Amino acid sequence: MAEHRLLTEHFGMEGIQTLAGYERAGGYQGLRRALRELTPDDLVAQVKASGLRGRGGAGFPTGTKWSFLPGDVHPRYLCVNADESEPGCFKDRALIEGDPHQLIEGTLIAAYAIQAPIAFIYIRGEYFDQRLLLERCVEEARAAGYIGRGILGSDFSCDVIVHGGAGAYICGEETALLDSLEGRRGQPRLKPPFPAVKGLYGQPTVVNNVETLSNLPHIVLRGGSWYASLGTEKSKGTRLFCCSGHIERPGTYEMLLGTPIRELLEEECGGVWKGRRLKAFQPGGGSMQVLLPEHLDLPLDMEAVAQAGSALGAGAMVFMDETTCMVNVSMRLVDFYHHESCGKCSPCREGTYFESDLMHRLERGVLAPEELTTLSDICDNMNGKCFCPLGDTATWFVMSAYAAFRDEFEAHCGAGRCPVREPRAAEAVA
Amino acid sequence: MPDTRPVEQPEDGRVGVTVDGRAVRVPKGTLVLDAATQAGVHIPVYCAHPKMDPVAVCRMCLVKLSTSPKLQPACATVVSDGMAVETRAPEVVKEQEGVLEFLLLNHPLDCPVCDRGGECDLQDFTQRYGPPTSRFPITEKVHFNKALRLSDRIELDQERCILCWRCTRYYEEITGEKELVLQQRGVHTLVATFNGQPLTSEFQGNLPEVCPVGALTHVRYRFVSRPWDLQRTASICPECSYGCNLNVDSRDFEIKRFASRDNPLVDDMWLCDRGRYSFPRWNSTDRVRRPLVREARGGVPVAVTLAGAVAAAARQLAAVREERGPGAIAVLGSPESTNEELWLLRRLAREVLGTPHLDHQLERFAGLAPAEHDLGIAETEECRAVVVLGEEPEHRAPVLRLRLFKAETKRGVRVHRLPAGTAPAQAVEAVGTGPGLVGVIADETARAGAAEIAAALAAAGATVKRLTVTRGPNGRGAKDLGVTPGLDAGYRAAAEGMSGREILEAAAAGRVGALVMLNGAALAVDGDDRDLLERALASVAVLVAVESRPGPVAQSATVLIPGHSLMEKLGTITSCEGRVQRVRAALPPATATATETGVLSMLAGALGSTGWPSDPIAVHREIVTAVPAYAQAGNGGRALFRGAPA
Questions:
Q1: Is the same domain home to B334 and B377?
Q2: Which one of A172, A205, A228 terminates a domain?
């Protein structure tokens, strides 16, 4: 079984980045149908029936999230989270580049469902070209009457505003995104109140991922029950997997949920490069725990991967071959979190710094063996104690790697070098 | 084993929780932290502050809750019925040690030279909850600026900062000035002023108090003292009529600082810089120390005993009364005296000397009536709207601004700042018609306008209460107790007399035979007023003065008796809202003579009226008997004259 192309069906099609091209491919029919045939409540019911879950990482059911909005408080806002910053993750970029109007259509459908008069697309600062593309597409859609007052002759009005971030990982956290959008320091807010109750400018707000929204035109056109027939019992539909690392054909592949990971690796990615063996992989981006070759037969299913001790997260598959030093990978990831920690809460701010210091000394081979206990202890002092998930996830990969490759970590202690990447350096000196 | 079963209770808007096995019932919506405090269980906090909204950033207060699988911040979690809170569970203890290790990671550990040493939460909690050692290599610490001068009052040590956000939140939530911001991110985050601009707030002095560590310190307290070497005296700020509660911290008979003392009804724990940093003036050694008598004006001063001075004063005053009648004697007090002193001064003037010329300040602003003191400071938060006339009220009593900001931002009170001369109709237009409590705040110069506006607002349907910001720490007490022309204690009508300025002008014109002054130099310290005072002093034949500082009054007095400063005596003063609060002796007196109440009692005796109380407590007893409002106020309550004659 190969790729199951639903969201990526029109990728690469001539003119798909223009409104005309998208309309030729059947674009904006979902929005048309939603506005003409469905009430907002019907739409919420359809999405609930589809079983669609958020594609940003946490996997919360989208329809349920929408239904948390208090009934009588207006205005409400929709925010599209396009601040894709997870290490190894580039599916939102692919969706924006490959089919930008699909996202805009999905955004308008969601805005109609929650009756939001304004939708903000918050796109990460580094996605500069993609932001220009989206801005151009929004203008096109506005000129064609898909955005603005009385969309397609209905009494629903909505404006779409594209806003660029300034390059902070934390702004992908939904409340930090809202603060950043309001012009404040991008730092997570205290919850409760949740954004559904008090979000952007203190109003009820829904924050949805790019991929989540891109599913909506299909659900509207083909029905929630059709969508629910795809995938596994709890993980419905398809997902885009960003495959990178030591593989022959890195890229974004759309897979039906439930497909074995091995199929993704061997059929789509062309297997591990240079004929080497797989050592480990991360199924959900830089935040998620490491998995081993024995986990390749797991299905692409949120529950199954969670049961194996990791998570599908934002759908970033990073494969590592047998030459990879797990200490080195851990150090690089810890450095990322140390660099991206916003500094709001003490365990994350100081803990990532401590962690980074320990990992650097371990990688150089100058850490004392007993300090490995310190490493796991401070990770325990961070995990679950931080203000937001950033600090928690800063410990997940390193702790899972330490558990799975304990001998490699221990071999670094006092070795004065990396015993994996420089196995013969010490012998040469001797 | 304590009984941890929730007790069956009736529905009363409260919920039952247990904290470490101790059962308490608290109102719905109470934070776990406050419930623990009520149960007598201490939870360490850094970012949480009783006057600010929770942010839950320090993670020091994480506790185990029966309602949650993860540890939760006590400062930001609301209790639910039947919740069991554990603050000493093994995972909580480990987490507290972990957070303290993290906070100390990049802390310079320079406690021996830190002003905060001895009263630092980081020190205290590390002692009580912290790990014995750090596992972090000391060479890896991140370094920042130390001793960064933010203004002439505040210094910042960025290394000691633990980023609890209290100072930035103080500026956002309490003053609204936003002078401190966070810069950079992660472990490099630091507190700084925007663009390095100096702090300009009138309320900077509160920063070192909200800071839980030694990051923000007073320039004027730098390397001055350790807290355990300070002697602390609870008193009242002597700078204005607002009546902020404070602690006077002294060492070696010198005041080293004023520290706030939270009274939620008055200051809400905030002091203004004018009050907080006014303490050096009380340390002046330039003082009147012994009684002097001049037998005639311009004569040679002779040092005498107190008894000799009092006898001379009585003799001189009696002679003037004999010769020119009681109307030739005038009596001047000041708003810097206590109620007890002012009460005896009033009795001396009205009962013994028999003169109606009695005042405590220069100006007499028309329309003085008890209704102008009806609105309580904390009551502003319950108003629908508050009208503030002119800039004077907030200029004279700066902490009022913080209360109005709180009322505005946290209670939704509409605050209308209108020019002092606003027409009543305009004020009604601004506030709107209809019922609800409306406050009108003015200073004494705008008293008449405030009365008209209050009447117009009342006619438009509102319940109106007024607050008049009086002058000096005890201007209100002087009015309540009748040290004012034409009005006796309790605002009862009295024989018309001259105001302070009229007394001085009459004296300068030679129409006053004798002047009795209690702390009178405070009335006219500079400019034209000072000229008038000097001309008056030069023309009056008899000047009996109780004065604590050398100056024109002390120089001209025919009888000079050393006074005690407000930091050297016991008594009560009444704030502008009528709150009767105690001042206490924080410093030993600079003179060996009796206090003012004793002196006035002796003088009355020498003039033939014996049996007066001489100590402040006995005088206060006399006040509460004579003025029922003061009996109702008790210690720290408000004296209200509702229904008193206008």
A1: no
A2: A228
Q: Which residues of B touch A374 (CB under 8 A)?
A: 135
Domain that holds residue A391: 326-429
Rounded to the nearest integer, the mean pLDDT of chain A is: 95
How many Å apart are CA B293 and CA A94, to the nearest integer?
A: 98
A401-428 pLDDT, tens digit per residue, is 999 999 999 999 999 888 888 876 555 5
Asked if B358 has any chain A CB less than 8 Å from its own CB, the reply is: no
Does the CB of B135 have a partner CB in chain A at under 8 Å? yes
How far apart, in whole angstroms, are the C-alpha atoms of residue A27 and residue A16?
10
pLDDT, residue A423, reads 73
Helix (H, G, I), strand (E, B) or coil at B411: coil
Q: A379: which chain B residues are within 8 Å (Cβ-Cβ)?
A: none
Tell whether B174 is within 8 A of chain A (Cβ). no
**Gap between the Cα atoms of B440 and B416, Å rounded:** 10
User: Over chain B (646 residues), what is each successive 10-residue block's mean pLDDT?
Assistant: 53 90 96 97 98 97 97 97 97 97 96 96 96 90 94 97 97 96 95 94 97 98 96 97 98 97 97 97 94 86 96 96 96 96 98 96 89 94 97 96 98 96 96 96 94 96 96 96 95 94 96 95 86 94 95 94 96 97 96 95 97 96 96 95 61
Residue with tokens 């806002």: A77
Residue B627 maps to a domain = no
Q: Looking at CA atoms only, how far is residue A195 from chain B in angstroms?
A: 16
Instruction: Let me know whether A306 and A199 are in one domain.
Output: no
User: What's the pLDDT score for residue B5?
Assistant: 53
Task: Give the residue from chain A lying closest to B98, CA to CA.
Answer: A381
| B143 in the same domain as B241 | yes
User: Of B76, B99, B187, which has the smallest distance from its Cβ to A343's Cβ?
Assistant: B187
Contacts of B414 (CB under 8 A, 6+ apart): B384, B385, B386, B408, B431
Whether residue B102 and residue A340 make contact (CB cut-off 8 A), yes or no, is: no
Residue B148 and residue B262 in one domain: yes
- End-to-end CA separation in angstroms for chain B: 64
Is residue A313 located within the same domain as residue A335? no
Helix (H) or strand (E) holding B235: strand B231-236
State residue B646's pLDDT score: 42
The total of structural domains in chain B comes to 4
Which of B57, B70, B182 shows the shortest C-beta gap to A387?
B57
Determine phi and psi for A53, rounding to 5 degrees.
-115, 150
Which residue is it, tokens 């991922």?
A: A209
A155: helix, coil or strand? coil
Distance from CA of B70 to the nearest CA of A (A): 7
Give the residue from A372, A386, A402 showing the smallest Cα distance to A341.
A386
Range of the domain at B250: 138-283
Q: What is the pLDDT of residue B298?
A: 75
Cross-chain residue pair A385–B101, CB shorter than 8 Å: no
From B469, B489, B517, the end of a domain falls on: B469
ipTM of the complex: 0.94
The 10s digit of each residue's pLDDT in A56-85 is 988 999 999 999 999 999 999 999 999 999
Q: Please identify, among B57, B76, B103, the residue that sits at the C-terminal boundary of a domain.
A: B103
| Record: contact B142-A353, CB cut-off 8 A | yes
Neighbours of B397 (CB within 10 A): 28
- How is residue B587 written in tokens? 């410093």
Classify residue B277 by burial, with Cβ atoms within 10 Å: 0-12, 13-18, 19+. Answer: buried
Distance CA B203, CA B398 (A): 9
pLDDT at A421: 84
- Chains A, B: CB contacts within 8 A come to 94
Over residues A365-395, the pLDDT tens digits come to: 999 999 999 999 999 999 999 999 999 999 9
Q: In chain A, how many domains are there?
A: 3
DSSP of B131-151: -SS--S-GGG------SEE-S
